[in-house]
Design a protein that fits this description.
homodimer; 190 residues; mainly alpha; 0% strand; elongated; DNA-binding
DNA sequence: TCAGAATCTGACCGATCGGTCAGGTTAGGC
DNA sequence: GCCTAACCTGACCGATCGGTCAGATTCTGA
């Protein structure tokens, strides 16, 4: 079990989330992991490489989830399944999502962030082409963005709630919010 | 008309929003405003002072809006009025809100950010004490957080839409989302 | 006209940044 | 025992950071 590399990854993930990427120095990461700054640069070739390692698993998972959108998303079963997957994704990777949401625009030149941006843009375009009214588009944006924001900021602002209850209530509210969206027969038309 | 000070404020606001506070150097602000770095520090005593000046108007406005919550928020008229005020606030000050949302936790030691954090916490506590179920609380969080996220990220992700349409659709969706929230007779009890 | 305030600048400061490098230490395979 | 590779470190580098300061320039009111 290689602990040091993974320790550094987790420490960096936490600090990048809490303090921001550019505000986090390699020196601080080294101190939190109780190694020298040189050791950090032994395990990761650069600070950007550390960011890459920290968020890549989350981006990989997001890419998997987006493939669920292929096919008949607009049956109620598929819609609920997607929402459940997305909520679980947010719950598991909320620190990585936090980094992307809060600092993504300023980290556009980092490959993995750029990849995540493309995925999110695909998601936005899918909903854009699948809906007919501005209200429907807004329902999607508020549902997904609101859920992401809520989970990301719950550490600093929210009131502690058991994960199971959070997931159930979130699924309920989002399903209800998206219920009025018109069911297009064939959303896959360019 | 003192243009330089206000120019610097606007340039700093835009850069702090786009690239992040700690990733924005005084040198860059100076170049964008076409003055020297020393001039920046003549008009603003420090980088933190510049951040302070950039976001203070938005925080002042937020404090005003929160006073609307005193009294009978849960009549439909008051609720709609609050939502309209809040949406307009987001539309006008979305760059400042972006800074607070995205970088607030890492800027907790800046007085004006701390003040904004207290205001947002007041808002959260009001909704927390005014609602009886987790679902209702989540409706508020998703509504306000989702709206804020949508407007903040529309520059980088969204599809351009006229402001009037955005406001109308947003008000419609949020009103609908909050409709199921139980109307408590007296939410002002500690 | 001219004194003084307001504005602006380049030179400079110590601190910290990300990153390099040579060398020390440790742990296994032969 | 010993060689090799993995692991770790302190010393050091150039660049950039936020900030200071003395002085040049411009503006303004008496």
């Amino acid at each position: 079990m290689q602990t040091t590399t993974e320790d550094l990854r987790l420490v960096a993930l936490a600090e990048f989330t809490a303090a921001g990427y550019s505000a986090t120095s390699l020196q601080r990461i080294a101190e939190l992991a109780d190694v020298s700054k040189s050791s950090v640069l032994y395990h990761f070739s650069s600070k950007e490489d550390l960011l890459q390692a920290a968020v890549t698993p989350a981006v990989d998972r997001l890419a998997e989830i987006l493939e669920l959108l292929a096919g008949d998303f607009f049956t109620p079963e598929r819609r609920t399944a997607f929402l459940a997957e997305f909520i679980d994704f947010l719950l598991i990777y909320r620190r990585e999502v936090n980094i992307f949401i809060n600092q993504g625009p300023s980290l556009f030149d980092v490959p993995v962030i750029e990849r995540a941006t493309i995925l999110v843009r695909q998601l936005a375009e899918f909903f854009h082409s699948s809906t007919s009214t501005l209200e429907d588009r807004m329902r999607f944006a508020i549902a997904l963005g609101g859920a992401a924001y809520m989970l990301c900021s719950q550490d600093s602002l929210g009131f502690p709630t058991p994960v199971d209850e959070t997931r159930a209530a979130l699924l309920s509210v989002l399903t209800e919010l998206l219920a009025p969206v018109a069911t297009l027969p064939s959303p896959v038309q360019e």
